[in-house]
Amino acid sequence: MYDPRSLKAEEFISDEEVLKTIEYAEQNRNNTELIGQILEKARQRKGLDHREASVLLMCEDEQMNREILDLACQIKKDFYGNRIVMFAPLYLSNYCVNGCVYCPYHLKNKHIPRKKLTQKEIEKEVTALQDMGHKRLAIEAGEDPEMNPIEYILESIKTIYSIKHKNGAIRRVNVNIAATTVENYRKLADAGIGTYILFQETYHKESYEKLHPTGPKHDYAYHTEAMDRAMEGGIDDVGLGVLFGLDLYKYEFAALLMHAEHLEAVHGVGPHTISVPRVRKADDIDPDVFDGGISDDVFEKIVACIRIAVPYTGMIISTRESAVCRERVLKCGISQISGGSRTSVGGYCEEEPEDESSAQFEVSDRRTLDEVVNWLMKMGYIPSFCTACYREGRTGDRFMALCKNMQIHNCCLPNALLTLKEYLDDYASADTKQTGENLIEKELENIPNEKTRLKTKELLGKISEGNRDFRF
Ligand code: SF4
Ligand code: SF4
Whole-structure pTM over 0.85, yes or no? Predict the structure, then answer.
């Protein structure tokens, strides 16, 4: 029985409800009257439920589809302006006891080099990341209770926060590790992590069990209920995601939104972020064997419909996607991207080209962070290295409350400009610096509150004098 308030995976992600949703959406895919009503509701910026959003996703009417995309772009603009938050993944260890058939780190892959960073090596990787200009990391590690116990993850987080190289600092560490116990989540919360990210991969239980034939991850319920344990353990911000291409995207889409509704119903706060990775080629992995692959057009529509359904939830895309695809989805929904990423353990200290035999997936966007920052600015976006909310204690429901009464805007733009200025002064190439200085000059005028604008100008001056780390 479907119950968003239940704590049982099979009840809050009820297979029956997902199938009924798909049937309803397919029946109404040309019902322009209903689609018009849903769009009207969405224009009030209060989001949509999984059924309404699924109807938009499956809509076949060309004119309506243009309206859906336009609305997603408008909501993106209203909530996130032209700011894009930057981050980088940091792979700590690729030892893993699971058998995920789409991931090269699966236990049976005997020809991939296995590696686990020592604290000394983490220091080197983080120094390299700081030298690129990164302030926000997402750490990644395979599941291996002996090689990567929680103590190793906690020690690594401590090391990362402790490194202050030149003007660099990692100010927010998000964590992407396997589903674990409430007790371990509490330890992560106490270590001061930002968001706890866990991809569901697929919500379809039968497919999930086939795709995860061995290892602790095989347990669908334990994995799907992980976010509830994380929140019980005191983690305010959690990040959802599915790996598009593993099962039918219509199924994943509806279930993903049901998961978000469940978190809101039980914990009073929805997911902080949603990631939208697609299956990529890697050692021992051929994406063509997965029959749920989706085209760029469908991918764009998924992003747009998620944007409309959960306007307050940040959306993340990685360097799995090409520059062209990233440009498309930035417009209609994505608010956070990675740049200059290496997806292998120790990748930031390796000589170019990256030793791809040990990468978790093939990177499509191979540009440096400076190139990505430059590219974003030339398209009119403001790359932001902001981590202010987390550091000011604006997490979970406090963050959502700010978002919902639109107060967040008084923080985001000035913070984006201040952190961009730090980047320009410390790490940018000459062309990027010039482009960025012009952009800051222009964007300063868009800070609505005069007092905040004056204060931002004053702080920008202080950054020029060598001071760092101001925030609103
Ligand atoms: S997806 Fe994660 S859990 Fe699965 S094999 Fe890869 S690293 Fe291990
Ligand atoms: S002010 Fe908060 S919401 Fe805005 S970019 Fe910074 S951390 Fe994100």
Answer: yes
Segment 220-270, tens digit of pLDDT: 999 999 999 999 999 999 999 999 988 899 999 999 999 999 999 999 999
Our answer on whether the CB atom of 411 is closer than 6 Å to any ligand 2 atom is yes
Cβ–Cβ < 8 Å for 272, 237: yes
CA of 44 to the centre of ligand 1 (A): 40
Q: Which ligand is nearest to the CA of 389?
A: 2
**Residue in 376, 387, 369, 385 with CA at minimum distance from that of residue 132:** 369
Distance 217 CA to ligand 2 centre (A): 33
Q: Regarding beta strands 136-141 and 314-317, do their DSSP bridges make them parallel or antiparallel, or are they unpaired? A: unpaired
The residues, any chain, with a CB within 8 Å of residue 122's CB and separated by 6 or more, are 90, 92, 156, 159, 160
- Ligand 2 contacts CB of residue 386 (under 6 A): yes
Q: From the CB of 388, is ligand 2 less than 6 Å away?
A: yes
Q: Which residues of 93-111 are buried (b: 16+ CB within 10 A; e: fewer)?
A: bbbbbbbbbbbbbbbebee
Residue having the nearest C-alpha atom to atom 1 of ligand 1: 103
Q: Which CATH architecture has domain 77-366?
A: Alpha-Beta Barrel (3.20)
Nearest ligand for residue 144 CA: 1
Q: Distance between CA 230 and CA 234 in Å, rounded?
A: 7
